[in-house]
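chain below, 190 aa
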Amino acid sequence: MNKIVIRPVEIKSNHSYILSFNHFSFADGPLGFYLAYKLFFKQGKMKRFYIMSLKTQMEKKWWLRYLGSFSVDPGKLSVNESLAYAAEILNEPGNLLLFFPQGNLESVHIRTIQCQDGISQIVPQITGKCQLLWSSNIGEYFESLLPSVYFNMLDCGTAEDFDFDRFKQDINRHHRESLKKSVRFTVEED
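prediction:
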């Protein structure tokens, strides 16, 4: 890595956390762990780290389970169990769930994040205090042979005031602003 830049937000105490971001690489897991360590663990706010991963990825990379990963299999009956388990772990303050709402890998430079509805099924089941956070993670090389990663964070409120449509609008607006902040490009006409 050339450099890592975190543009943080305030992290609430005595909450669990859903940390979501754009899914552009297998390196997203380690990047998520790095961000969780820097912003949550070092401040004494995180106790346990979990990642929701596709079952197909868990089958290929069995060792992910040792890093706090559990599987979800969209389109199968077991998906409800996985979503209920995610909500259950989020009832405990200090637990952090790394969650990729896109549900698949996409280019880091896409301008619109297409969210699957998993998060809208998890959040209503959470009974404890839970803060939702988004990070638009942008990688760029510029003049270096090594990439720089920019974590552009957004506080998306709490489970108590969650609205899925507002969540999608907020993260898409924030993602477009993050691209403008982190990437040098010629201004395009709409």
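The mean pLDDT is 87. The CA atoms of residues 87 and 126 lie 5 Å apart.
thats it, cya
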